[in-house]
Records
---
Amino acid sequence: MKTIVLAAALSLVAGSAFAASCKVEAGNMKLAGAAMTSFMTKCENDAKASCDKGAMDKKLTGAAKDSFTKKCVSDAVGS
């Protein structure tokens, strides 16, 4: 039971950080040019920090951490 509750809590935390991808958000805000570049850079950096924290919370190391972080950032950015 504790495992299910913990898994649900982690998925809510991870899901709420990036409900929509950076590309979708930039499109919704109708950004272009330098504004879009700046927004995407900040969004990607924020995603990387959040994903690194998620990997640390899950106690991942090595290849598992790299794989998790790569997919997490890719999903958050919308690549």
---
Amino acid sequence: MIIQLNSAVHDDLREALQHYAETAGSQIALDFYEEFQGSADSAASSPLSYRVYLEDPTEIRRVNFRRFPYHFLFRQIDQRTIRILVVRHDHRHPSYGLDRW
């Protein structure tokens, strides 16, 4: 399965990685990125196994990170592609990134 990233996801990741690098060290930042990659691969492997977060305009699904208080939202574009729309902290305003469809 192909994983596409909304262009703003790069900024989301850069912000989180910078935060962890500055506050907890580069290894924790690397751990965060590896968890993101593993979660994205898992979503691509079985996208329908994740709960629907929002049904309008299309089914948007949510993937929670295990170790970090973050999650991402994605949608399945076709049988071979998912698009990650936003990576956000669990305490961020619920509407953050919802305009990226």
